[in-house]
Specification:
mainly alpha, rod-shaped
Amino acid sequence: MFNLSSIRTPARVACVVGLLLGITVGTLLVSNALGERWARTWLAIRSQAASTVDPAPALTVQGPPRETARLRQQLDISRARKAYHAALTIFFFSRYNTTLTLIPAASILAAAMLLFITKDGWGGVSRYVRATFAVSTAIAAFAGAFTKIFNQEANAAKNASLYISYDNLENRILSYLASDPPRRKGTASTRTAFIASIDSSLASLNDLAIGFDQNAIPDFQAAFQNAGLPAGTK
């Protein structure tokens, strides 16, 4: 029969580290999947333009063919960009949700191990406590740096805002096509003026909405120097 005590201490410590890393990976997968599901649900609820609406009949209203074609292009562009920012919102929010789950859990575990280390000293605690402290601290530091480097919160918020803007723009075009206002020379109700206003909105909203912060990369050399450890040889 298998006996855990028959395994040497270094191997058992490696098992503890492997278990912690396995739990971390599982948490990553679950929290990321939940984040994607929540983001998709919220975006779907927030969307104003009905996806089941077929704008084709509205585009057959009387008018110059080039203007009608341009309205179709503007609608397609709005929907394509809306889908783009929806995908980025889901991507960044799910990752941000994952880090928000990992950081508190790893920090609490590291703090608990630190209590034992503070009480009995580094050499007075078991290797399991030291290994757990080292792994949980590393996970918390990595997750904290990861979310800052990739600007997860800011990127998710910016893409969500652009998603809403394009959703409103899509709804505006659909409403215009449904109402089909008559052409009135010299007024803002002409199709030419409306097309120009949509072009202006498309230009002002055009943004990749992806940003990174390389200054958030941890400076390990400075950390080693502050701790009195050798940072490397020159």
